[in-house]
Amino acid sequence: MDRHPQQIKRERQDKKRHAINVAKTSDMKTAIKRVLASTDATEAQALYTKAVSTIDKMVSKGGLKKNTAARRKSQITRHLNSLSG
Questions:
Q1: So what's the pLDDT on residue 1?
Q2: Are 55 and 48 in contact (CB under 8 A)?
């Protein structure tokens, strides 16, 4: 089977991009879980800010669709409001 240099390079790039995408997705999920697990309103507010920032970065880089991001932000916002209210 022929292996073209372009194909070899593409596979190398795909591995790198996959590793980056998995890491960013993991960071985002962890940030969301930390907000949902927190019970203190002030602590949750700081975690919420970081989580929303992470979600927005994922959307701008194309790692997450806009409506999915909106749904996740809505979920953590509801949790934050339930703590303060």
A1: 67
A2: no
Per the structure, the complete domain to which residue 65 belongs is given by 5-84
59 and 69 Cβ atoms separated by less than 8 Å: yes
pTM: 0.86
State the Cα–Cα distance between residues 80 and 30, nearest whole angstrom: 16
CATH number at residue 69: 1.20.58.110
**CA 41 – CA 80 distance, rounded (Å):** 7
8-state DSSP, 61 = T
Residue 84 structure tokens: 């303060």
Domains contained in the chain, number: 1
Distance CA 7, CA 2 (A): 10
Helix H, strand E, coil C: the string for 14-78 is HHHHHHHHHHHHHHHHHHHHHHHHCCCHHHHHHHHHHHHHHHHHHHHCCCCCHHHHHHHHHHHHH
